[in-house]
Design goal:
This protein has about 600 residues and is α+β, with helices and mostly antiparallel strands. The protein is built from 16 helices and 22 strands. The longest helix is centred in the first third of the chain and has 23 residues. The strands form five sheets. The protein has an eight-stranded mixed beta sheet with strand order 6-9-10-22-21-20-17-11, with helices on both faces. A five-stranded mixed β-barrel has the order 1-2-3-5-4. It has a five-stranded antiparallel beta sheet with strand order 12-13-16-14-15. It binds one RNA strand of 77 nucleotides through strand 1, strand 2, strand 3 and helix 2.
RNA sequence: GGGGGCGUAGCUCAAUUGGUUAGAGUACCGGACUGUCGAUCCGGUGGUUGCCGGUUCGAUCCCGGUCGCCCUCGCCA
């Protein structure tokens, strides 16, 4: 027989119903609300599982002496234990908004476990206090149901992922948190070493190199729910520390990784959030995604794809169209189905302002009517020409056509963003609908204007699509890597690649980017050495847990799904971290601060 | 690092062109009330208008600086 103190609960605040009628039970919890009626008091008692109404009746039989005096003094957030009898409510007194609404607990005895001061904000499901205050008192904010629900579902999701990985022979391997700084990529968080004066550990931006070493070690399939750290400026979807599902597999090609991860995501979304994802996830070549959606993370909840109209534009009388093509640019359009009515002249002006803000010189448009086109380009597309354009765009009466003529880069940026904006306005981006896809074969390098040199587009270890590429300096911008992104609803949620597993090729990539032998040795020496002793072909991916959960739950930002987040200035308002180090600590670490405003 | 928004009672907000004693809802405290469930009714406490400085007879309001929070561009291989 388990021991239970008299104050300890027999049930939770979410589970009592008519089946427990007339039973004597004990509940523990926080007082969410209290309603005093003189000789009759109602308490809403809350715990993680729900809310149960407690009734304290001065005149009820069997109530312990003094109970009513205790209850009269109770207030919000006091922690109490209630021994009572479960009573069915009369039909007209049932609260249909609560799982426990058919019953109430008639108090026989009330014990105060902990008194609460008036909280700085009311603990209600609906957010009333501002986020700054809520972050300062995060432990109070976390009492709110929406936050608890996010943490619960996040945990269920991660558990589903772990189960899936376990089922597929992956080994959960912990990699170092105290590791080494690398020059490329994000700014590192540094940790001074006491026993190595003047030297610093870096917190990992990701376990990238270690997971590849796991492959060299022959561990074959690695995964980790890994904390990562990046000291860059923050956004609604970025925290200085965040969590990745990190995966690496040996002896694989792209489709092996993609198939495996696809199954994992489907299982995680189903078991974590009850979301069924349509399969298979479409797989786009990078340039195909850019051509059709104007971006490398397409939102597939709706169509409205970009249609190339350059050929039609070239023979047009419209100078803007014709001129763009003649000077090496392109003309593309989108067809917003049924949007003609939704956009007034003023609405279209706003769209024009929107695209000019993205670098476009203007926005050409036309509304399709039963008789032809209306709008800025109508006079160039009368009669058959108009019909030809509509046929090309797949447009029918009531649709709105929007065109941008410019360089390919500008057209894709402007129309890609415009597509999302118009799609949003037309209600095509339903937050309860989820569509995933893969984007493959990203460019291997990108030009860094500031530094005046090429740099990795993805990471230094991504293999080129063509293993035999002789010279990276030839046609550099068209060299593709075996890198892929996982995308859901227009969010990049994961990124990975098939890796380079041979020293020679890795060395040539570094060499091309002007990373000297010395730098290579200093930064990645142990990885390059490892490959000398037999590195298997391998590849992997990392998925952002915080972002997936945020998207699945339809929350505003990732702070909503992290128990103890930091502000956009990377400050923990509750713990007041970071904080000052004492002179003694600094001296022991042999470091000094040059900050103008210490502590 | 740049741009934008915000900062007034514990909380959410208001306050006319710069003008009397800075208001309301809610919370809290006190009172009434035996069927409420965002209880209701009556009364009350509660303010360095983020901070510093300037303009002015007079500043919540205008100006400069500063601190904090949020969004965003750069940044985040």
């Amino acid at each position: 027989m388990k021991q239970r103190s008299s104050w300890q609960r027999t049930h939770t605040c979410g589970e009592l119903n008519l089946a427990h009628k007339d039973q004597e039970v004990v509940l523990n919890g926080w007082i969410e609300n209290h309603r005093h009626h003189g000789q009759l008091v109602f308490l809403d008692l809350r715990d993680r599982y729900g809310i149960t109404q407690i009734v304290v009746d001065q005149e009820a039989k069997g109530t312990a002496a003094g109970t009513f005096d205790v209850v009269k003094r109770l207030g919000a957030e006091d922690v109490i234990s209630v021994r009572g009898s479960v009573r069915a409510r009369d039909a007209d007194k049932v609260n249909k908004n609560r799982a426990t609404g058919e019953i109430e607990l008639v108090a026989l005895q009330v014990t105060v476990l902990s008194e609460a001061e008036t909280p700085p904000f009311e603990i209600l499901d609906k957010v009333e206090a501002n986020e700054e205050l809520r972050m300062q008192y995060r432990y109070l904010d976390l009492r709110r149901r929406p936050l608890q629900e996010a943490l619960l579902k996040r945990a269920r999701f991660v558990t589903a992922i772990r189960n899936y990985m376990q089922e597929h022979r992956f080994i959960d391997i912990e990699t170092p948190i105290l590791t080494k700084s690398t020059p490329e990529g994000a700014r590192d968080y540094l940790v001074p070493s006491r026993v190595h004066p003047g030297k610093f550990f870096a917190l990992p931006q990701s376990p990238q190199i270690f997971k590849q070493l796991c492959m060299v070690a022959g561990l074959d399939r690695y995964y980790q729910i890994a904390r990562c750290f990046r000291d860059e400026d923050l956004r609604a979807d970025r925290q200085p520390e965040f969590t990745q599902i990190d995966i690496e597999m040996s002896f694989v090609e792209e489709h092996d990784v993609l198939d495996m991860v696809e199954g994992m995501v489907v299982q995680g979304m189903r078991e974590g959030f009850g979301i069924e994802l349509p399969q298979p996830f479409p797989r786009f070549d990078y340039f195909e995604a850019m051509d059709k959606y104007g971006c490398d993370k397409p939102d597939l909840r709706f169509g409205m794809t970009l249609v190339d109209c350059s050929a039609l534009a070239a023979k047009s009388d419209f100078k803007v169209f014709k001129g763009a093509v003649e000077t090496g640019g392109i003309v593309k359009g989108i067809c917003a189905e049924g949007a003609a009515e939704k956009y007034s002249r003023k609405g279209i002006d706003e769209l024009t302002t929107f695209v000019t803000g993205l670098g476009a010189k203007g926005l050409a448009w036309a509304k399709v009517t039963a008789t032809g086109l209306e709008g800025s380009i109508a006079k160039f597309y009368e009669g058959d020409k108009g019909k030809e354009l509509c046929a090309h765009m797949g447009a029918k009466a009531g649709d709105l056509l929007l065109f941008v003529a410019d360089s390919k880069k500008v057209v894709h940026k402007a129309l890609g963003d415009l597509r999302l904006k118009v799609g949003g306005t037309m209600g095509l981006r339903d937050p309860k609908v989820f569509r995933c896809c893969w984007v493959l074969n990203f460019p291997m390098f990108e030009w860094n204007d500031e530094k005046g040199r090429w740099q990795f587009a993805h990471n230094p270890f991504s293999a080129p699509v063509n293993w035999d590429v002789k010279d990276f300096s030839v046609d550099t911008e068209n060299i593709r890597s075996r890198a892929y992104d996982f995308v859901m609803n227009g969010w990049e949620l994961g990124s990975g690649s098939i890796r380079i597993h041979r020293t020679e090729l890795q060395a040539r990539v570094f060499e091309f980017l002007g990373i000297s032998k010395e730098q290579q040795r200093a930064n990645f020496g142990f990885l390059l050495d490892a490959y000398k002793y037999g590195g298997p072909p391998h590849g992997g991916i990392a998925l952002g847990v915080d972002r997936i959960v945020t998207l699945a739950l339809g929350r505003e930002g990732i702070r909503d799904v992290i128990a103890f987040p930091k502000t956009s200035m990377a400050f923990d308002l509750m713990a007041e971290a970071p904080g000052a180090a004492s002179p003694e600590q600094m001296a022991e670490l042999q470091i000094a601060s040059t900050a103008k405003r210490p502590g």
